[in-house]
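quick q for whoever's on today - can somebody do inverse folding on this one?? i tried earlier but teh output was garbage lol. tokens:
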């Protein structure tokens, strides 16, 4: 019997797991995907939102504003790439400036610090590539960018080091509640594709699918629709030319199309916002990518297609009531929800996790551990600067003498060594797939998008996992990479 079962290993499930792993308890996290961070948490804008956008008084506003400083703090603790690059919301006509002032006022009502209106000249001083027709902007000093998969994976690793048991490729099929005289004497049977488990409490953090599981156990029905956001990604040459995240004024569909550098210095344009009937449909479409280009060109008229390296899409879990649903369920004691966590859910994740862990701890009288362990050290790194500095170079030479894999470059675009790839596989909740390697090391994420390094990564994965290379997948399930074998000779 587990004390707590968490369904979903996105940023929300992993953040809750990390916070609960501070307590003396048995804890399991189930995800139907082959890795943590295979859902919405891998495909979003990666913005640490300041909190001026959400309607005052909502969970979105509260958790965003509390989450913002915590993301910076957690990223530092966990060595996750994160930068306070500021956000700008651009107005392109004088008549739109009052809307900037209204956003500032809304942000102030939400308790956001560091909001101001800046002039056209100040916008162009900060961001010379912005459309010179800009009339002014909202400056949000606390806005930032973070690696969404870096954060999710680091939280999972830290939780695992502290005893959380991750069950991947394991779908939760149903939940049955067996009530007792009080919450501590009740239990749940969690039916999974790997058999049933029992739990004293269950936390539903299943993203776009949270409603179907929830509606089988609670009378308080929820409806989640998937709203797809599509993106273009441009290579690092371009990303380095921007500092801030550049929004346009929000529309009734959300925060609109942004232009932002990522923490890895690529640049992303997007997202669109469209309801899709299939909650697994993360395709990108020619029509929506064209819409991104047209809209982003207002922010950045110099936009050209020659630096585009890929496109991708993520699905927002939009709850009919339009707000996050967080905390104890209304009718099933011992069952907790983190549902409808669309944007700004990445920013809000730490605050959501702290609140939920406190609720569970209080309901079950959990006791904090004396021996909560620190996160595992970061992966061994390599950077070009090491080659230009004599001290760093001699340090690198020593490391290569100790482990020659440190000197074997596998991904030439992102400078990822064989040692990094092997370490990514050997870590707690380590990589098992090509995408798992990608999100932990950036191999496959550069200009060539895996054209050169994929065969070598597959060889290393097969060696480390002691499996046949043909069994490896891009991201689990049917996503086999090698589909046959060529006869050589005769
Ligand atoms: C286009 C877009 C842009 C965004 N931009 C931002 C941003 O810039 N800043 C920000 O703060 N937020 C942003 N967000 C929101 C943020 O990405 C989400 O709020 C966050 O990732 C949600 O995390 P999650 O853990 O709830 O969901 P997910 O990451 O989807 O995790 C849910 C997990 O549950 C698993 N699961 C589902 N059903 C089952 C089952 N039956 N059994 C087992 N496992 C199951 C799934 O496999 C999945 O891994 C954006 C979202 C989108 C879509």
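ok took a stab at it. sequence:
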């Amino acid at each position: 019997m587990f004390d707590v079962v968490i369904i979903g290993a996105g940023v929300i499930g992993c953040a809750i797991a990390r916070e609960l792993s501070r307590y003396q308890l048995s804890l399991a996290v189930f995800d139907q995907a082959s890795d943590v961070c295979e859902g919405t948490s891998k495909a979003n804008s990666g913005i640490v939102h300041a909190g001026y956008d959400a309607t005052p008084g909502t969970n979105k506003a509260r958790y965003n504003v509390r989450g913002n400083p915590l993301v910076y703090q957690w990223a530092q603790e966990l060595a996750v790439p994160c930068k306070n690059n500021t956000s700008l919301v651009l107005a392109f006509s004088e008549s739109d400036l009052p809307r900037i002032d209204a956003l500032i006022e809304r942000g102030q009502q939400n308790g956001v610090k560091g909001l101001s209106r800046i002039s056209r000249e100040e916008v162009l001083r900060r961001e010379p590539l912005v459309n010179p027709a800009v009339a002014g902007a909202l400056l949000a000093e606390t806005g930032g960018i973070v690696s969404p998969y870096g954060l999710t994976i680091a939280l999972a690793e830290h939780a695992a080091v502290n005893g959380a048991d991750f069950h991947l490729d394991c779908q939760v099929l149903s939940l049955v509640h067996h009530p007792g005289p009080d919450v501590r004497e009740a239990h749940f049977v969690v039916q999974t594709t790997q058999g049933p488990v029992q739990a004293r409490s269950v936390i539903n953090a299943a993203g776009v699918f949270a409603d179907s599981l929830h509606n089988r156990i609670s009378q308080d029905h929820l409806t989640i629709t998937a709203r797809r956001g599509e993106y273009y990604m441009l290579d690092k040459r371009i990303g380095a030319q921007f500092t801030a995240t550049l929004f346009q004024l929000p529309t009734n569909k959300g925060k609109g199309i942004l232009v932002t550098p990522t923490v890895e210095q690529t640049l992303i344009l997007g997202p669109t916002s469209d309801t899709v009937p299939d909650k697994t449909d993360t395709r990108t479409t020619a029509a929506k990518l064209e819409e991104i280009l047209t809209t982003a060109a207002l922010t950045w008229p110099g936009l050209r297609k020659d630096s585009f390296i890929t496109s991708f899409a993520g699905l927002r879990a939009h709850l009919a009531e339009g707000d996050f649903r967080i905390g104890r369920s209304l009718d099933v004691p011992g069952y907790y929800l983190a549902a409808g966590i669309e944007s700004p859910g990445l920013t809000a994740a730490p605050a959501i996790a702290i609140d939920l862990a406190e609720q569970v701890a209080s309901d079950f009288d959990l006791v904090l551990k004396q021996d909560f362990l620190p996160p595992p050290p970061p992966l061994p790194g390599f950077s070009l600067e090491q080659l230009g500095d004599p001290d760093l170079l001699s340090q690198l030479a020593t490391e290569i003498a100790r482990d020659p894999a440190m000197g074997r470059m596998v991904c030439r675009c992102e400078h990822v060594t064989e040692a990094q790839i092997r370490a990514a596989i050997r870590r707690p909740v380590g990589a098992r797939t090509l995408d798992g390697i990608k999100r932990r090391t950036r191999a496959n994420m550069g200009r060539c998008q895996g054209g050169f390094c994929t065969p070598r990564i597959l060889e290393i994965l097969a060696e480390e996992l002691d499996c046949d290379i043909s069994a490896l997948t891009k991201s689990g399930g049917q996503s086999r990479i090698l589909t046959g074998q060529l006869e050589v000779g005769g």
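fwiw The two ends are 58 Å apart (CA to CA). also The pocket of flavin-adenine dinucleotide is lined by residues 7-13, 30-33, 38-41, 44-47, 49, 171-172, 205-207, 209, 213, 229, 271, 314-316, 341-347 (CB under 6 Å). so keep that in mind when u check it
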